Amino acid sequence: MATEVVTMPQLGESVTEGTISEWLKKVGDEVEKYESLLEVATDKVNAEVPSPVGGKLSKILVDSGATVAIGTPICEIEVAGEGSGGAQETTPGAGATPESTPAPEPAHPQAPPPQEPAQPTAGTAVSGRGRYSPAVRRLAEEHGIDPGQVSGTGAGGRVTRQDILQAAEQKPAQAQPAAQGPGAPREVVAMESAPAVIEEGDTVEPLSSVRKVIAERMERSKQTVPHAWLMVEVDVTGLTELRDRLKEEFKAREGISLTYLPFMMRAVVEGLRQVPQMNAQWNNDSIVYKKRINIGMAAATDRGLIVPVVKDADQKNIVGLAKATQDLVKRARSGRLTMEDLADGTFTVDNTGAVGTVLTYPVINAPEAGIVTMESIVKRSVVVGNMIAIRAMVNLCLSFDHRVVDGAEAGQFLQVIKKNLESIGPDTSIY
Fold first, then answer.
1. What pTM was estimated for this model as a whole?
2. What is the reported pLDDT for 371?
3. How buried is residue 204: exposed, middle or buried, by Cβ count under 10 Å (0-12/13-18/19+)?
4. Looking at the DSSP assignment, which residues form a beta bridge with residue 4?
5. Angstrom distance (rounded) from CA 2 to CA 76
6. DSSP label at 38?
7. What is the dihedral of CA 325, 326, 331, 333, to 10 degrees?
8. Which of 224, 226, 160, 223 has its CA nearest to residue 193?
């Protein structure tokens, strides 16, 4: 019998670690090739990971709830056939590189987090030293810690986010009094959230793996991205008239509802074309301007908020966007999204008006440069020329990364969207 070692797969662009939500097989179970083996929490949703081989699950190396780096061995599968006696590593979905797939060392992923803060030690020779994930590097920079001086507890001795956090907790106690002066560096100590007050009758519910990921991503975005915010009012009277005229015919012909989201998404595409600075990503010492326009759309599900992506949205008309968005929402709510559905977003749109809001301050889906919301459409009296008229009005709210764009470009972007939506009339073609 040969043994195949399955490692944590690559979960998407810029993702460096994953959380095992649930093992769908237990030790001793037979598993077929491509049969779902476990669920892994990505940025916004749980995704099932298929088995790369058929055989018997002989050992689980990482328990449910644990977060490990990409390439970490997570289980072993016995495969019928002759083997060399040595375990072979297999990563489902992608080939692992030598530095991201260390030799199987079950003791590392199985070991629980140390009870005492990791002690930064100098001169310790550890496998993988010098290669750190972007998340680890970013966290180390935030806390002013040299990752090379931290003992790694990950697979092959790699330094994990937990190692950096524990080193940061230890750092204030080890810090020596320093001379204070105008040029002296000021140490920043991370603040912890105030604990909840639990009283008799309160219900305490442990966080789901998806909620943990959402909380971590939102906290990281607010702490590391300098959010700025703008809002404009848009007269969408012509849009509402067009939709009222077409919605019954559209439902009968296409089999789906005609909502306002595809019109908004199409206007956002035009904005990104004319203001490409918004279709960009922060990259620490550079800015990446994306060639493709892939629009993420926030979707509420009973498992939490997720953001599936409409790929190449600039190549679709209103009908194409309507079909693409409703297909993604349907599969999101039934838990049938794939990794590909969640990857490669370059900008995010949220139809918050669907829940009745008129003004929001959305959190940026980093590393994207912005997110725009479409609020509730309400009829109000407004001045048109020298007359007062009843018009259908909507607020568009934009949060943007002020490291990537300034207010001038962000304002121009909103004005393009506004002009595009206000140009829609009862006779506008949706094809």
1. 0.65
2. 97
3. exposed
4. 77, 88
5. 10
6. E
7. 110
8. 223
Tokens of 430: 């949706």
SS3 of residue 33 by DSSP: coil
402 is catalytic: yes
Spatial separation of the C-alpha atoms in residues 114 and 132, rounded to whole Å: 20
Of the candidates 146, 235, 406, 427, the residue annotated as catalytic is 406
Structure tokens at 400: 């943007």
All domains of the chain in start order, with CATH: 2-105 (2.40.50.100), 112-121+128-172 (4.10.320.10), 226-422 (3.30.559.10)
| pLDDT tens column, 324-373 | 999 999 998 887 888 789 889 999 999 999 999 999 999 999 999 999 99
Largest distance between two CA atoms of the chain: 87
285 flagged as catalytic: no
Q: Which helix (H) or strand (E) holds 110?
A: helix 107-110
356 Rama sector, left if φ>0, alpha if ψ -120 to 50, beta otherwise: left
CA angle at residue 235 from 233 to 241, to 5 degrees? 150
Q: Which residue has tokens 């088995």?
A: 51
Q: pLDDT per residue over 59-98, tens digit each?
A: 999 998 888 888 899 999 999 865 444 444 454 444 333 3
How would DSSP label each residue in 183-245? TSPPPPPPPPPPPP---TT----PPPHHHHHHHHHHHHHHHHS-EEEEEEEEE-HHHHHHHHH
Candidates 143, 235, 344, 402; catalytic one:
402
